[in-house]
TrEMBL record:
It is a multi-pass membrane protein. The chain crosses the membrane at residues 167-190, 210-233, 240-258, 278-306, 318-338, 358-381, 393-413, 425-449. Pfam families: ThrE, ThrE_2. Residues 51-295 form the Threonine/serine exporter-like N-terminal domain. This is Uncharacterized membrane protein YjjP (DUF1212 family). Belongs to the ThrE exporter (TC 2.A.79) family. Residues 320-447 form the Threonine/Serine exporter ThrE domain. PANTHER family: SUCCINATE TRANSPORTER SUBUNIT YJJP-RELATED, UPF0442 PROTEIN YJJB-RELATED.
């Protein structure tokens, strides 16, 4: 037998022995047959669901929704779509979401940056409706993704000039709410409309928001000084209320409520980021107002702070109407449809009515009265979460707008520019307290009245029992 034939024979013998061993091997153990983790969809399905949840979270967060509500909405949506073991992490300008798949497969993580802040209440309502339809099993993931793309890319329901009219109407309503004369309210309307168009132009040029706030405060005060010096706003008509109303409009875009809600819900990183944003934008507003006041003093024109707000039964009725108009105007500026406009107006009237009754009848301080009024708005928000049909954020943002401390903030700015640092800091601190009372009251009222949802089930891996091992 040649060496080649001997080698071939040895290889065949080895192969026969290996095949014999495989055929007579015992069955695999139960431990090897046991699943290594929860049963989850494949990678493509996981990516689809995560993308849908991330896009929904982006719309909610950019619209000013709190981190807690955004997180819970994303988790519920993922659970409905079949991903029960997910984690969501939000840090002010970024959203991360991870789907855990036990030991069967590697986790899938996705991240998205929130690069814009846009107030579009109609888009917010449409996204909330898409989430509800997914939870009711009326839409699958593919259809929900298509509907979401259509809602996000759709144009605003109104032309841009309607939003400008909404901001201007908000300023005029706030001026009437503070006791201004009709000519002063008209001036507030025109000045705020100018600020909005100028701010839109500067935003298109890419100017940072801090400098836009400086320009807004400068234009609000400077234009009022010019109208007062020219005699368009006659003496005795409280022209400083034009600045106070414009400051209220500029403050309405700050996410004070979401900041406090994040802090209460233990989302401290996001809350700290929002606090920094609010502080920076408020500093820009302060800079613009004080700079314009200094320029006015140079030319011998001053806008003294108006006296106490007028009271009385007739004045209270007019204030209720002005508060309702202010809240509705804010919703119109946010592109809300007609039904949310009515709900926002009612919330604004309810909040201001509570504030007026506490301050004028019971002589309650402004901070405590504002907090109590915000609780009323928060309860209305929680009830809307139960009823559905209207986004609760519409009522939250619009309902507190008449209560924003624009008048107190202007008084503090004026004192910082004229009367000294000590008095100005005290008044600015009062304005800050009013803002915090607003946010805390809304958060508490919403917590009391919102529906109690069952906890999201969590899959817990346990060790195999003795029977499973055998």
């Amino acid at each position: 037998m040649t060496p080649g034939e001997r080698f071939t024979r040895r290889v065949r013998t080895a192969l026969r022995r290996e095949a014999h061993g495989l055929l007579h091997a015992g069955p695999p153990t139960m431990q090897l047959m046991r699943p290594l983790g929860p049963s989850v969809p494949d990678d493509a399905r996981v990516q689809q669901v995560l993308d849908l949840c991330m896009r929904v979270g982006e719309v909610l967060l950019s619209s000013g929704e709190s981190v807690d509500e955004t997180t819970q909405t994303m988790i519920r949506l993922a659970s409905t779509a079949g991903l029960s073991a997910v984690d969501v992490d939000i840090t002010f300008s970024s959203i991360s979401m991870c789907c855990h798949r036990g030991m069967a497969a590697a986790p899938v993580t996705s991240m998205r940056l929130v690069r814009y802040r846009a107030l579009d209440l109609t888009r917010l309502e449409e996204v909330a409706e898409i989430v509800q339809r997914v939870e009711r099993a009326e839409l699958d993931v593919e259809s929900a993704s298509a509907a979401l793309s259509e809602a996000v890319s759709a144009p605003h329901p109104y032309p841009r000039w309607v939003a400008t009219a909404g901001w201007a109407g908000l300023a005029a309503s706030v001026a009437l709410l503070l006791g201004a004369a009709p000519i002063t309210a008209l001036a507030a309307f025109l000045v705020t409309g100018l600020i909005d168009r100028l701010g839109r132009l500067l935003n298109r040029w890419g100017l940072p928001s801090f400098f836009r706030q400086v320009v807004g405060g400068l234009v609000a005060t400077g234009a009022t000084l010019a109208l007062f010096a020219a005699g368009v706003i006659p003496p005795g008509t409280r022209p400083s209320l034009v600045v106070a109303a414009s400051i209220t409009v500029l403050l309405s875009g700050l996410s004070v409520v979401g900041t406090v809600q994040d802090a209460i819900s233990s989302y401290y990183v996001t809350s700290a980021g929002r606090v920094m944003e609010i502080a920076l934008l408020s500093a820009g507003l302060l800079t613009g107002v004080v700079l314009a006041l200094k320029i006015g003093f140079t030319f011998g024109v001053a806008l003294e702070v108006a006296g106490e707000l007028p009271t009385g039964a007739g004045r209270f009725s007019l204030s209720l109407l002005a508060a309702a108009l202010a809240a509705a105007s804010f919703s119109l500026a946010g592109y809300a449809r007609w039904r949310p406009l009515l709900a926002a107006g009612l919330a604004g009237a309810a909040g201001w009515g509570t504030y007026g009754a506490l301050t004028q009848v019971l002589a309650v301080g402004p901070v405590a009265a504002t907090g109590a009024a915000a609780v009323v708005v928060g309860i209305a928000t929680g009830l809307l979460r139960r009823a559905g049909g209207i986004s609760p954020l519409v009522v939250t943002l619009a309902g507190i707008t008449p209560l924003l401390p624009g008048f107190t903030a202007y008084r503090g700015f004026y004192q910082l520019a004229v009367e000294g640092l000590a008095d100005g800091l005290v008044t600015v601190t009062v304005a800050l307290g009013i803002g915090l009372a607003l946010a805390a009251g809304v958060a508490f009222g919403d917590f009391v009245a919102r529906p109690r949802r069952p906890a999201i089930p969590t899959i817990v891996e346990t060790a195999p029992s003795e029977a499973e091992r055998q």
